[in-house]
Amino acid sequence: QKFGEIAFLAITADEQVKGYGTRLMNHLKQHARDVDHLTHFLTYADNNAVGYFIKQ
């Protein structure tokens, strides 16, 4: 199995809830699947970002 680790992703507070983080994460995951053939991703989140990562 091929695993990828997403250790840190941050969007400034004034740019949050505009979809930038979601688009960035989706692009990153698609690139990792297409180029590196990754099948699993491990992420870390602080308590304020848990909801975001659950949606991912």
Structure in words:
- With 56 residues, the protein is of the alpha+beta class.
- The protein has one domain.
- It has 2 helices and 2 strands.
- A two-stranded parallel sheet has the order 1-2.
- The longest helix is centred in the middle third of the chain and has 17 residues, at 20-36.
- It is globular and about 35 Å long.
- The two termini are 20 Å apart.
Quick overview:
One of its GO terms (biological process) is positive regulation of transcription by RNA polymerase II. With 56 residues, the chain is of the alpha+beta class.
Task: Throw out a few tags for this protein.
single chain, alpha+beta, 14% strand, histone H3 acetyltransferase activity, nucleus, N-acetyltransferase domain-containing protein
Give me the strand/helix succession.
EHEH
Largest sheet data: 2 strands, parallel
Amount of helix: 40-55%
Radius of gyration: 12 Å
Number of strands: 2
What is the domain tally? 1
What amount of the residues lies in strands?
A: 5-15%
> Can you list the strand order of the major beta sheet?
1-2
Task: Give the CA-based shape.
Answer: globular
Task: Count the DSSP helices.
Answer: 2
Low-confidence runs (pLDDT<50, min 5 residues)?
none
Q: What is the averaged pLDDT score? A: 83
Measured distance between first and last alpha carbons = 20 Å
**Structural class by SSE content:** alpha+beta
